[in-house]
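REQUEST FORM: STRUCTURE PREDICTION
Request ID: SP-0412
Submitted by: Lab K.M.
Chain count: 1
Length (residues): 302
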Amino acid sequence: MNFDHYQVFLKVGQRLSFTLAARDLYTSQPSVSRSIQNLENELGCKLFLRNKHGVTFTPEGRTLYEYVSNAFRELQKGEEAISADAMGEHGTVAMTATVTALDEFLFACLDAFHAHYPKIRFRISSVSSNASIDKLRSGAVDVAFITSPYQSYSDITTQTLMNFPNVVIAGKGMTALKEGTHTLEELSDYEFVSLPQSMQLRQYEQHVFREASLSPNTVAEVDSASTVIPMVSHNLGLGIVPYSLAKNAIEAGEVFVVKLAKPLPLRQVVMAIRSEERLTSAALLFTKFAARLAKDREAKAH
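STATUS: Completed
RESULT:
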């Protein structure tokens, strides 16, 4: 089968003129005639009948035209789909994210990105920063959105997207902490509700106290930062959590922020990738969009 012959046949069928088909194909009329004659010889039948206005289909030519035009439409759809994938307009982005990264940055980023590229799909796993990095390094995901502190690796490139504050919260029963400002040394006398040792928020908490040559007194460990808040609201201890996570409970009066003489250090939402060369077109588009959104946010903040 000669693909060029069918391309010429399709054009003649569209124009019903050898001359106009030759013009559209940037070739000569005799060349078009030869292609049609060769195709007719291959198929063993006439495809066109000449008249003074040009050509008309024979019954066999009309049948073949339907098949050929459908085939070329499918080819065009395939080209458009591949082109769209190459431009990142289709495809799936696989990612991991911590709950905090989702709340602080990623939900808003996904919303904005989806408005621009509605045909791109997402596969998202919500896990800890350490688990996110492990999945990223194994190739299970394209990109990870993690929160500090985290372990660095030579094969992972990171970009800080934003800073976010953490606060010490207390339940209504901790009346002594409602007034004035307090130091970490004072707070070290209180019990804390914390996360397991492997979790970034627990490591952050320990780092904060260690920098002051202190150690937090952990009364209970829970498996998520969101669980810390109701534990604190029932006066089971103090807690250190991202402000955004505790905001609703603070506004509802369930817990209050303990004012510190020295604010807690900021934490970061970080985007991590293996390398741009390994990213799919859709994933590359999304990571660039996320970086641009973070930059725009920072500019507006200043």
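NOTES: The chain has three domains: 3-86, 92-163+268-301, 166-265.
Reviewed by: T.R.
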